[in-house]
Design a protein that fits this description.
Blueprint (H helix, E strand, L loop, with lengths): L2 H18 L7 H17 L8 H17 L5 H27 L4 H8 L16 H19 L5 H17 L7 H11 L4 H24 L7 H4 L5 H4 L10 H14 L9 H4 L5 H14 L1 H5 L10 H4 L3 H13 L10 H19 L4
Helix pairs in contact: 1-4, 3-4, 4-6, 5-17, 6-7, 6-14, 7-8, 7-9, 8-9, 8-14, 14-17
Length: 361
């Protein structure tokens, strides 16, 4: 069986798993989407907010297409399909990273990275983070290939820049990855403002253009950015988005981070493991993780920490890849010693998947 045929077969099996164990648990935002999208599609053609522009545009348009095929199709069906497809894309992109950078123990790497709870994003999650996670993985793949290349390529650098800009249009939380793009530009291009600034500005230009187009088409007025967006704290009300400075809150957030990627407990060991040829990619991923950690540290979980799990799941994407990339390529570590850790991680995630899948009374 050829490599392409294996990938197609694997993708079909993966999609079947995502569908069979699909989540039946919605948070308040997910429940609201079930009526907001039909209402706004009828009113202006799509339900869109500035925080999740293209995620919501794609979901609105895809639901309208489903209606043409089945007049009774619900919004939940469109979300489930796109969540599963995002998951298939994510795993294939991760496999691309594995083939490019992991020389041995590839199965161990794939299983370990996918053992974190963040993969619940791809089990039919009805929220606006699944496609963004797949785009972030694509950004990581393109950036890592640029860092591993013998010489820098403007094409790959600008491809990474465009991908990050697209991810920001899907969800503004991806803006926290801009420091990693700065590192990428500094490491692979001319080390001057003239060399670094253009690729770093492109994501902001793409995001601004997306906002302008949505404003000009009447789908999303630009003034809503200040009034209604979480990014602007609903008109500058900073207190509404800052988390409470309490030990209980941050312990709960720490628990969530470990649920999303149990390998977070191994992060302190990464600097000692990522040496030599691994250092550039590990440093890039470290910058990405550190900047994304601002999200759980300074952004309030409005629905409650566990109910808002998918908001913070993006941290686990570069986090899991970083830890297992550093460990898998370390020849001095016997992988068998880590299998119990991976098994517990996988078991914890499966229990979370099953809990969300189990029919509600």
């Amino acid at each position: 069986m050829g490599g392409g045929c294996r990938r197609v077969t694997g993708s079909i099996i993966l999609a079947a798993v995502f569908i069979l164990l699909r989540t039946n648990t919605l948070n308040q935002d997910g429940s609201d989407l079930l009526w907001k999208i039909p209402a706004d599609v009828e009113r202006v053609g799509a339900h869109v907010v500035h925080d999740e522009m293209l995620e919501l545009v794609v979901h609105s348009l895809f639901w309208r297409l489903l209606l043409l095929a089945d007049g009774s199709a619900g919004v939940s069906l469109s979300y489930r399909i796109l969540s599963v497809l995002s998951g298939v894309a994510f795993v294939n992109l991760l496999a691309g990273f594995c083939r490019t950078h992991i020389k041995s123990h590839r199965f161990f790497f794939m299983v370990s990275v996918l053992s974190g709870g963040y993969i619940l994003l791809f089990f039919g999650d009805i929220e606006n983070y699944s496609m963004t996670a797949a785009l972030v993985m694509w950004y990581i793949l393109v950036s890592s290939r640029e860092l591993a290349a013998p010489s820098g390529s403007a094409r790959r650098l600008y491809s990474a820049s465009i991908l990050l800009g697209t991810a920001m249009c899907f969800h503004l939380q991806a803006v926290l990855l801009v420091p990693s793009l700065v590192y990428l530009a500094f490491r692979t291009g001319p080390r001057s403002c003239k060399g670094i600034l253009p690729p770093v500005l492109i994501p902001f230009l793409i995001t601004g253009l997306c906002m302008l187009i949505l404003d000009l088409t009447g789908v999303l007025p630009l003034e809503h950015l200040w009034i209604y967006s979480h990014a602007t704290a609903h008109g500058g009300d900073i207190g509404s988005v800052l988390p409470p400075l309490s030990r209980t809150y941050y312990l709960e957030m720490l628990n969530l981070m470990v649920l999303l990627f149990p390998s977070a407990v191994l992060l302190p060991f990464v600097p000692a493991l990522a040496e030599g040829y691994r250092a550039p990619i590990a440093s890039f991923l470290s910058v990405a993780v550190c900047s994304l950690l601002l999200l759980p540290l300074v952004w309030k979980a409005a629905l409650g920490v566990l109910n808002d799990w998918n908001l913070y799941a993006i941290v686990a994407v570069p986090g899991s890849v970083l830890v297992w990339y550093a460990i898998t390529e370390q020849q001095d570590i016997k992988k068998g010693w880590l299998m119990p850790f991976v098994f517990i991680s996988f078991l914890s995630t499966f229990m979370w998947i099953w809990q969300n899948h189990a029919p509600r009374g």
